[in-house]
Task: structure prediction
Amino acid sequence: MKLRIAQIGPLWEDIPPPRYGGTERIVHYLTEGLVDKGHDVTLFAAGSAHTKARLVSVYPRSLFRDKIPWWNVMYPLLHITKAFEMEKEFDIIHVHLNQGSDFMTLPLCQAFKKKVVFTMHFPYEFNYTWAGNTEVFQKYKDLQYVSISNSQRKGGENLNWLKTVYNGVDTNLYHLNLKPKDYFLWLGKFNPDKGTEEAVMAAKKAGVKLIVAGAVDKLEGEDYQYYLDTKPYIDGASIQLIGEVSDQEKNVLYGNAIGFLNPIKWNEPFGLVMAEAMATGTPVISFRNGAAPEIIEDGKSGFIVDSIDEMVEKMKIISTIDRAACRNRIESHFSTQKMVDGYESVYNQII
Amino acid sequence: MKLRIAQIGPLWEDIPPPRYGGTERIVHYLTEGLVDKGHDVTLFAAGSAHTKARLVSVYPRSLFRDKIPWWNVMYPLLHITKAFEMEKEFDIIHVHLNQGSDFMTLPLCQAFKKKVVFTMHFPYEFNYTWAGNTEVFQKYKDLQYVSISNSQRKGGENLNWLKTVYNGVDTNLYHLNLKPKDYFLWLGKFNPDKGTEEAVMAAKKAGVKLIVAGAVDKLEGEDYQYYLDTKPYIDGASIQLIGEVSDQEKNVLYGNAIGFLNPIKWNEPFGLVMAEAMATGTPVISFRNGAAPEIIEDGKSGFIVDSIDEMVEKMKIISTIDRAACRNRIESHFSTQKMVDGYESVYNQII
Result:
């Protein structure tokens, strides 16, 4: 059945994002995938978005690029109310919860809540600068939520979860490489939670090459300090630093790695880098946090570890993992196509 | 007629505030004044508020004291929705717009908007960190607004303004002093917009004593830098610095001043310090910004000037101002009693 679907994406970064921007990337693939399936889709996003759907914008560019601080509530308010005022035009309104201001959608959708689906793009227990967010969710626990992993629900199991729909990787963008080179890879934003320093320590202990491909957000003071603290360990010989890379470069970088190191120290609700690496056949060794144990089958498509020393041990036996199995796992469970199908079934469930 | 009135105050500082906190002070006087007049009043505020009204709280202490950042939307959301869910219990819901998150009230009150009154506690044109706020107001221009001065409306004259209700000073707290000492006074938060440095310059040029009574917000980087920049000019002899003072100390400090200097560089929507000084009989010399020309009758209860040099000239003839006239102006136009009467008439107008 053809559905009239509204996607309410973040205003802060372009959709699709030129480089970094996990939520924007997911909204992009979902929107385009639903159009391809014949649905009548409207994307609410900044005017700089590129989409085959109808685009409705309250602001011409992504807010981030106009240096509007991320705590601004004014444009999010105009964005959300614009979409909700048009609610009669839609069978489904899909809200992507990503910033504090997005929580305004919870009280504002009450009059038509049966057609609203919320995807949470952060862990339920996420009190970083959001003190009180779990109280807000408890107040609105009867709204309809989708998790992007089962682990994400921790602490908020009593919410009205409709389903877990895993984030998806574009399997056309990443190609299986059965003949990697000799290095391990870490890729992400410099941030203590992402474990850049732990990856470097593991590589030094194991005596292997590591490429650190990192974006540095100079506006985030803590991130920038972490970058400055970590940089001295990166000797330029066995441990090499390269900057942010494009999707095409990532495909090559992932594919040529013998293993991907993911010593995350937070409960990352999904972890797109793991799935991207695996899509090129590269097995992932991850700390046992967040969704890692759901994405990686321990011993089959990578390893789940609890310490740097254990990571080092698994690095030594990384070649025992079948790279084709890694690729297969993504194709069968974590592709954009699977994700679009998953959301479509959620929509059909509530219509 | 006895009305059932909800006052929705800020959650950030105690009501009443121990020291600084203009909006909290006004909400306090209004709430207590309405109770004294026999109305059935409910105050929505942090649990640490002191009031004769019924108190409803979603959080036990003021957020500021628990170091919750001012851009947090979670507790404001719980606070606002709690009040609005009880809307049937009230004839009037009075919302005090003070922080970015307060703008959520505009879309959220649509179903019962005829009983909602908004007081704006900042200038309509206030784009400091609130890019987009005027677009939000234009979208909701038909809601019912009260201004705290006529000058505050600048740029937003097309909003549905019901009335100007000036902020009020507690005339029992401040006493007329007809025999001041020999110093001029500046009092406020250190901030470039408040013109601490200009007050110091004027006093140096005029060759008079100045007391600078200032609070420094170390969390606000710009304010703290301004304090550090200004401090060297304060020589401790003719220009003296004292810290933040209590209400009782303020009464003495204002009353003993021969004049109050207010070289503000922003369109302050009211300017409570001017009214407080005048309540002790102390005339004010203010830059021609914000509500200054509405509070001060130029030449009768102080002077309106356009430059530091003009301020210096008027400082020389400050004794030509009748101190009793200053006090009278506050009693007749800017007392808490007048303010409570003003809001009561607004409520009766829309009921």
Observations:
- The CA atoms of residues 94 and 117 of chain A lie 5 Å apart.
- The longest strand of chain A covers residues 183-189.
- Chain A touches chain B at residues 59, 66, 68-69, 71-75, 77-78, 81, 100-101, 103-104, 106-108, 129-133, 135-136, 139 (CB under 8 Å).
- Chain A has a mean pLDDT of 95.
